[in-house]
Amino acid sequence: MQASLAARNLACRRGDRLLFRKFDLSLHAGDTLHITGANGIGKSSLMRILAGLLRPFEGTVNSTGSLALMDERLALDPEWPLGRSLAFWHALDGCTDPSDALAMMDIEPLLDVPVRFLSTGQRKRAAFARLLSGSADNWLLDEPFNGLDAAARDKVIARIRHHCEAGGICVIASHQDLGFKAPTLAIEDYAT
Ligand SMILES: Nc1ncnc2c1ncn2[C@@H]1O[C@H](COP(=O)(O)OP(=O)(O)OP(=O)(O)O)[C@@H](O)[C@H]1O
């Protein structure tokens, strides 16, 4: 894998509020990082900046390797059956055999269900199935455990560990305890 992710002197402004400033990070192959902070502090905004989806007010982001952001926005057509929606992304992501990821997240029984009928946890499992069947080097996971039951959560943690042991990077934004050890960065330390 080609993973690396660095941010320098980031500042984030939302509306007329400067949320944080002077935020730096430097991650290399194998690193996991837990971004912590209270509701509304700017975790999701930071993740979108790192993903290149939101322009920082100041500062720069540099990465090598491919990047995947998983957040509350499912990016699956709500009217399509889940299987068809996932197949759309598998084709774009160049995934020829998603069966392992679908089985791991217990998705097969849901493939005929329209996305709009999925429960919160089922949606999250579908999002993980897409992530796991892709080949991104840098994973940006925004509140990845919301809605997951204990069994699904354990599987996801095992896959995060596996991803990083294989040389990937995983940044997890969450106000919750992760349930496993990871270096932490508190956004409060950069709040204005
Ligand atoms: N498009 C926007 N325009 C203006 N303000 C916004 C916009 N999006 C988010 N905000 C504000 O930016 C702040 C940070 O939001 P963000 O979603 O990044 O926080 P968060 O730390 O992820 O919160 P939570 O833990 O509740 O998910 C919030 O006060 C939010 O209302």
Describe what you observe in this structure:
With 192 residues, the protein is of the alpha/beta class. It has a domain at 1-66 and 138-144 and 172-191: P-loop containing nucleotide triphosphate hydrolases (Rossmann fold, 3-Layer(aba) Sandwich), CATH 3.40.50.300. 29% of the residues lie in helices and 27% in strands. It is built from five helices and eight strands. It has helices spanning 43-50, 82-93, 99-104, 120-133, 150-165, and strands at 4-14, 17-28, 32-36, 58-64, 67-70, 138-142, 169-173, 184-186. Strands 5-6-7-3-8 form a five-stranded parallel sheet, with helices on both faces. Strands 2-1-4 form a three-stranded antiparallel sheet, with helices on one face. A hairpin with a 2-residue loop joins strand 1 (4-14) and strand 2 (17-28). Helix 2 runs parallel beside helix 4 (120-133). The longest helix is centred in the last third of the chain and has 16 residues, at 150-165. The protein is globular and about 45 Å long. The relative contact order is 0.24. The model has no long low-confidence stretch (mean pLDDT 93). It binds adenosine-5'-triphosphate. Adenosine-5'-triphosphate (ATP) is lined by residues 14-15, 19, 37, 39-45, 175. This is Heme ABC exporter ATP-binding protein CcmA. One of its GO terms (biological process) is cytochrome complex assembly. Keywords: ATP-binding, Cytochrome c-type biogenesis, Membrane, Nucleotide-binding, Translocase, Transport.
